[in-house]
Amino acid sequence: MRGMPGSHVVLKVNSNQEPDRKILKKAAAIAAWHSKVRGGGIVAVSGTLARFVTKPKGVKAGTVQIRKEQIFKVQPAIPSDPI
Question: How many domains in the chain?
Answer without folding.
Answer: 1
